[in-house]
Amino acid sequence: MKQVRGTALLEKLSMAFGPSGCEDNVMHLILEQLQPYADRMITDNLGSLIAVWRGTGEFPAVPEGEILPKRLLLAAHMDEVGFMINGIDDNGYLSITPLAAKDARMLAARSVTVGSEKGTVPGVIGTKPVHLSGGVAQMDSLYVDIGAANREDAEKYVHIGDFGTYRSDFVRFGSAPYLKGKALDDRVGCAILCDIIAELAENGERYPFDVCFAFTCRNEIGMNSTRAAAYLTEPDYAIMVEAGAAADIDGVPSYRQGGKLGLGGMITYADTKTVYDKAFCDHLVSTAKMNRILYQTVAGQGEGTDAAAVMRVREGIRCAAVSVPVRYIHSAGAVMQESDYDTVKALLRAQLRRMAN
Amino acid sequence: MTYKSLLTALSRIMTVSGCEQKALPAIQELMGKYFDEITVDTARNILLTKRCGKADAPRIMLDAHLDEIGMIVTDVLEGGLLTVLGIGGLDRQLLPGADVWICGRENTVYGVVAANPAGLLQLADDGKAPAYANLRIETGYTKEELTAMGIGVGTFVGYNNTVTELANRRVAGKGFDDKSCCAGLLLAVCETQREQLAGDVTVVLSAGEEIGRNGANCAAYAIKPHIAIVTDVNFAETPGMDGKESGKMGNGPMVSLSAVTDRRLTAKILKIAETAEIPVSTVVEATNTGTNANALVFCENGIPTAVVSIPLANMHAYNETLSLDDGENFTKLIRAIITAEDICNAFTAIPYERGRLV
Description:
heterodimer; A: eight-stranded mixed beta sheet; six-stranded antiparallel barrel; B: alpha+beta; eight-stranded mixed beta sheet
């Protein structure tokens, strides 16, 4: 299998099937990508994958105002929003319950994929024709049509407890250019971390400290499973590499816009779940400034990251988050700007180098 | 050419009501060698005629509408976002996150409808279907670039989706309303030798059905058909639907029993289906067939019309779903109808001498 990089890797990851609780396909893709590069790869008991890039263990004196971790954790989650099959009717239609895909309007009429890591089939979420419609779609009236003739036929393809998510092509469009696809939250973080490991390995770049790259699961349902990876790896500093909500379009008041496309990684001081380590955030900001890398700061918006749980692991872990701005983040048609991919990667690489010296 | 391949080819063509004539080159390429004449009229209908070769032959009109629902650009905002209004009956709640094609002067451009990002709900999200005033289409281009491509106020926007095959020969895609019938009619006529035809057959791929059924009637005045078969999609039975107003996918095409349509022609079609062992179901549509037949029956001094339909789930969504078996049986039925010797005499009105009082 050939290793791919950048947005080609993002496309591959975006198209992979991985709703919360069913991340194995994504994990295997990442495993294959990292096989030649990582020093070691381990999994925790919840299903997260951790790739280790060993440090030299020779820690120099730390200048005033600088940060030198004993071990650094970079985390991105593999899962995406989706739904679970909770019933099959006599006519072979599947009923569903949300796995973080909470808005029935975002699901009605969509192309979807249903199944599990054992195999998937295409389906369509049914919608009552607008001619007869009684209003806005409700979650409990949504059903998936996979073409099954009846219950028995449907059970050849899917079972209760199987998963589903959007089926949506990865498209590069416009002059910006923009990238559109499903699951950019947080396959974009996964792709950036994969790229960084590959670059470190190719350059033979070793730091005093170990860098652990965690590809975590079940983030979207609020399980914060990154804390298990954090417990296992025992870092003292951690950065969540996420997809952040951007609503920078007209009609939205600027204070509610969150991130803006094309302006680089969002360094988050606070979100709806927690407040981040101020000194660490400031340090990231100064790294961006020193290296003339685009960045933007946000506070108080967005659904939050696993940092809220990670910072309470063991004796406490200093956390920051850097997010790629993504519009329409939990929909089938999430949109990001390609340049933000490189900007966020550059910021993280610059931060690693700075901490090592 | 199979039913599925023709349906897929037609689905790909963007024919939002108002720009149907743009399909002409594609239709000519697909159908040129099978028909004697392919024309487009001022109402944007595309007419394909195949003659039976006999003098003074009766004329049969087969109608399926080519237009599909879509949108039209009302403004181009800074940052390259478009505002739109709907063309035809769109379900606005399905729009956020949908892929679209924007029909530029020379090229079509990809777009995606802006959706509410989770956690940053905006654009006055009140849990309802978004108002057009709050919908935006993202293009990735600047306003200047869009203008240079001929994209501006009045540009047509259509759904953008590929055809997916589900289990048991069920397929999902966009524009199956009414390209599923267009495909069936064209295929039925293509596959029939002209000597077998019961008359001169004109397939009307009619325009403007979705915006008020304002195409087919114009074609009828040009053709002056002895009988007309209007074909459209009908509601498939899905969870939450009443079986009385819908048909089961896979049970064959549906024939409408209605006060609007011609009873003897309808009875004849049911008889033809029975003889040829083609599965059909019937549906009662008392005073409104919801199709071009409503407009056609009053053309000229009245045209005896019957309605044959294909059951379709998720109508007017971008994943309209149907059974290929139904499409193929629909094609067989149309073929049986246009080759039935006495089909043009099967209408109710007697005596019948065209254009004159008796």
